[in-house]
Amino acid sequence: MNNDMLKDLKDRLQEFPFGVHVEEVGFVEEAGDGVARISGLSTARYNELVSFDNNNYGIVFSLKPDRVEVVIVGEPEAVKAGDAVKLTGRVLSIGVSDNVLGRILDPLGSPLDGLGEIKQTRQMPLDRAAPPLIERDFVKEPLYTGIKVIDSMLPIGRGQRELIIGDSGTGKTALAVDTIANQKKFDVICVYVAIGKKKAEVARVIEELRNSDALKYTVLIVADAGASLGLKYIAPYAGAAVAEYFMLKGRDVLVVYDDLTRHADAYRSLSLLLRRPPGREAFPGDIFYIHSSLLERAARRHDHYGGGSITALPIAETYAGRLTAYIPTNLISITDGQIFLDLNLFNSGIIPAVDIGRSVSRIGGKTQKPAMKQVAERLKLDYAQFLEVEIFTRLGAPVEEETRALITRGQRLREVLKQPRFSSLGLAEQVVVFFMLNQGYLDSIELQKVRPFVESQLLKVKQEIPEVIKEIETTGELTSKTKNRLTDFLTGETK
Ligand SMILES: Nc1ncnc2c1ncn2[C@@H]1O[C@H](COP(=O)(O)OP(=O)(O)OP(=O)(O)O)[C@@H](O)[C@H]1O
Ligand SMILES: [Mg+2]
Predict the structure, then answer these.
(1) CA distances for 94 relative to 1, 16, 134, 236, angstroms
(2) What is the sign of the dihedral through the CA atoms of 220, 225, 228 and 230?
(3) Which ligand is nearest to the CA of 149?
(4) Which domains does the chain have, with CATH numbers?
(5) What is the pLDDT of residues 375-405, one digit of tens each?
(6) Which has the least CB within 10 A, 11, 57, 261, 279?
(7) What is the number of the ligand 1 atom nearest to the C-alpha of 166?
(8) Which residue's C-alpha comes closest to atom 16 of ligand 1?
């Protein structure tokens, strides 16, 4: 026997578990629709991972006196009555490493893109307590969407939770994807979680991210419409776990949950299958807790504790614009504000279809740079006033000079806020655009020509006085010197 063999034998003996080892084994009494009832697991704990015969897994969903109920997260069809079940003593986790960037995974961490297993992973629990208060810091850094209507009037801060809500087809996903695409300028890691979306929709998002070169800093967690209820249920937690992996390394992360309406539906189905008492709209009573504990995991961590942040953009779908349905009201009360997309605005070509009056961002304003504050301060109020008086003029009422000016400006603001997809603007560019508007440079431009005019002026500013752009971008300030420079330039241009 040579030395190597001896060493190998020794190593193996070290690993050999001497002593008595007791393992509790349960049996599947009943299985179907992605859930199973199991007898014999008396020491099971809530949320514990159980393993079935065939390498399949489930999570303990409810504990009953004589049985436990389990949500199957692998292949539900593979679990049959009579199968043996073992407790694992672990909670569900997902293997994450820096190599997940650019990858498309299912909520258990298995690749869906055929690019091979993720290597050198650290197991991140799907269910994890939110960072404690003491570790948290105020939201103070902006998260730029590159979308004018948001960055100016509904600014989002890193660590904030902002709901994107609206009817189907109003541009919710587009808004989130454009925001992800904009992060390439900012070193923010992105996680996009697709829950219950059609395969084609998911494929479109992947394509868009790839085309905008955003896939390389993004992780996609996908439980599409065809996935089991269990996978749809755990998908957002998997996304949160991936985001936490990067946050704990001090990184800023943006996570999009598209969408939590589908998530709530999956949770409701599971609860009904397991005969939990239904509450409002047949959702189980703890659906509020389910979503609030998920969104609590978004936070900004104090530098003292290693920094990092998770910004969450949960998406919710409404039906006929009803914000008062159960899941929308819950989510509105949990988050730090909502961006409401309106179907009528969308249909009349006002896209992004943000209904400014019904949208709010409660903490992002503190992160806005002085330059943007200066030009955007009055926009929201002016716009609201404009909308009010616009109705009267539609009815043909005569208006005073002052009102006419308000309308002229408001209509131009509405034009300026329209923005095609994948055309994000930086801070300085946005500041220049709103400066032009506020200073009246657009008032005499015909409405249809406002957008091309703004575009060409912006281009000229960038080409001919690039130092102005640079100054605003780097300092975040709009000094009177810069303003004079801009005024001189723009006045020269419009003469
Ligand atoms: N800024 C934009 N400019 C032009 N088209 C847009 C813009 N935003 C969204 N759209 C288009 O509107 C359509 C609907 O957008 P999107 O799929 O994002 O809606 P949604 O609200 O996510 O819908 P669902 O609820 O069905 O998921 C898409 O075809 C998209 O390309
Ligand atoms: Mg969508």
Answers:
(1) 42, 27, 27, 12
(2) positive
(3) 1
(4) 21-91 (2.40.30.20), 95-367 (3.40.50.300), 373-494 (1.20.150.20)
(5) 999 898 989 999 988 887 777 777 788 888 9
(6) 11
(7) 21
(8) 171
